[in-house]
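Morning!

As promised:
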Amino acid sequence: MSESTTVSGMQTPASAALPTPGQRLARLRETVPLVHNITNYVAMNTMANVLLAMGASPAMIHAREEAAAFVPVAAALTINIGTLSREWLAAMVEAAVAASAAGRPWVLDPVAAGVSSFRLAAAQRLLSLRPTVLRGNASEIIALGMHGGATGRGVDAADGVAAAAAVARELAVTYGSVVAVTGPVDLLTDGVRCVRVANGHALMPQVTALGCALTGVVAAFLGSDPDPAADALATATAALACYGVAGERAGAVADGPGSFAVAFLDALHGLAPAEVDAEVRIEWVDC
Amino acid sequence: MSESTTVSGMQTPASAALPTPGQRLARLRETVPLVHNITNYVAMNTMANVLLAMGASPAMIHAREEAAAFVPVAAALTINIGTLSREWLAAMVEAAVAASAAGRPWVLDPVAAGVSSFRLAAAQRLLSLRPTVLRGNASEIIALGMHGGATGRGVDAADGVAAAAAVARELAVTYGSVVAVTGPVDLLTDGVRCVRVANGHALMPQVTALGCALTGVVAAFLGSDPDPAADALATATAALACYGVAGERAGAVADGPGSFAVAFLDALHGLAPAEVDAEVRIEWVDC
Amino acid sequence: MSESTTVSGMQTPASAALPTPGQRLARLRETVPLVHNITNYVAMNTMANVLLAMGASPAMIHAREEAAAFVPVAAALTINIGTLSREWLAAMVEAAVAASAAGRPWVLDPVAAGVSSFRLAAAQRLLSLRPTVLRGNASEIIALGMHGGATGRGVDAADGVAAAAAVARELAVTYGSVVAVTGPVDLLTDGVRCVRVANGHALMPQVTALGCALTGVVAAFLGSDPDPAADALATATAALACYGVAGERAGAVADGPGSFAVAFLDALHGLAPAEVDAEVRIEWVDC
């Protein structure tokens, strides 16, 4: 409530006519986008439940025999390298290529990109296929920047969102992707514009797979947009803000991470578009 | 409470001496059937918890090195193609063959059978091995019928249970299986008799894997039956009715899909046989 | 409260200066150990949430391309054969060898070791690599003993913890591992000393993967110990006691296994070290 008026609501410098986050949420629920996910074993169940609670329809299809062929059937694709293996990586690459060919938006989640050379090479390979949105935490984004011709700064377990901002902008320019660095305050950029989302709750990182599931929610918002490429930055921003508002509501009633996870699904399901617009804390900032 | 007397209770035209759903549930809890599941990654955890809450004992074993050999150890088998791959399909076929050889009942769940040729061929191959029960939603059953020499009607995203009824009967006759088409009102048939189950709650499809877990519950009821082949239609009907009653109880206290999932496991665990028999809404109908 | 003074608290015959379970929990929360898990599909999500709630940091990494290389990055390793396949087994062996080479403690969970020759051979192979702790139920421990040159007594579905005690001691001596046999009252031994932990709740085995997740918690306690090899018996005992205390707290408020699972995560998260020390029921016994 103490935020300035530039912080509340969805005010982009270029256009006041953009749909609000609440309006985008309403559209998601009307269109019920089918979201195709190639994601990790830990996150699959949570991601499916988050997408259902939000109003989207999840499909988990990873086999090479069908993954790429399924891409045009869905409205959007997510690729998450959390429990990566060589076989799955091949299907991920084929699916990403199919998404570009079919004009489907797709979101890359480079889980733990920095912890092994296998994983970093996989994330780099997928990033080179130019995802619509790249969503990761600060350490993951910085790890990608080190090997992507970007700033090359050191990776630190305590990497903050601010430390990743310069890398995020360079990756956005290099790959034509919107980059979303999530943390206590999220930072998103398309390389030219930057925006912060301050919604969320401290218990969210205490529940496994809520970050992975957010990647699915970004895809759902993109997949319900009539022109996902037009302003993926605004769309991803709306997704993160809605997610954070639901987190705040869950946090207000939770006694710990167990009850938080339950309340969070209920909150996503019950999120009213008008209330979302009153509660989002989005700030367009200088890059 | 407003249902006619033909709708309440378990009244089959042929025999009044069949156990009631509540009596079958009591028998399940006494026998604690071991249910062997080859199921998808999204559903595994939920399915195990549902089977435990119901009173059965779950085992998830899928590797070719042991899947078929384990079949005779368990009381029943489920095969679910939700997150299919070539390697798993081979183990599924071997396990289904082993179930027939050992006289073990098994249930096929043809998840999203219509979305790719790989998946449809897999579902058809497994169906040709004559599962005791085939359980799917209307779209899945219709997709199987199109390629199974059945009616060939078009697949529609809005396929209803009624639209799948004719296909279900033909599949039942062709493969000697009971076919259960689940939806707002379930339809089950053995090709000669048809029955509807009206229990359930609108939040059930909003929680991922509850359909997959129901397949496990059907197997648990079959596995606790002294002669599973004698009347698999009545057994599967009882399973669906008990599941639906638990759903109604959970729905009465839930605030959304998160709290529904929690309350549903509690309701399954607390389900009293006598109460089940008072609340089931089963109707034998003309085919 | 009716337990004798030898039952309450952490009193080992050899040393009164050992940290209490509550002090070990406090150290875990300070160090936030990174726990590397190669575990089964059913347990992954639950295990990650349990570790987060306890105060540790989970990583699920199983591919041969990176599993062994990641071992020295983490503070401890768990290997669980629940949904075993040939490919995963190779990575497990490589990771266990890497853990020994790097001096990292590791915990083996031989899920259902007795149900197939494939699984038993895998568990024996891993056990021969001398885990810091072996944690299983009575039937699993006895199955390992039969083929490990130990007592060779028969496996029984009703195997109790007491029946496994002699096998546990022999395995501990043979492999230099602490063996933890979990059940209504847990028994732990290093081959010389024996200890019982009486904390826990009857709903714990009604929630899938809570046993598997406990294996992760043992690893987290080991990983936060400055010298994990010094007294792994006392460390594992503390882990089981803390877990059981949280189970008792969850059981006091749960209506069934669904609400128990939620309350258990909240209880783990809220566990206060001083309260733990007041509630643990640990008894050192004659072997």
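Residues 278 and 287 of chain A are 26 Å apart (CA to CA).

Hope this helps with the figure draft.
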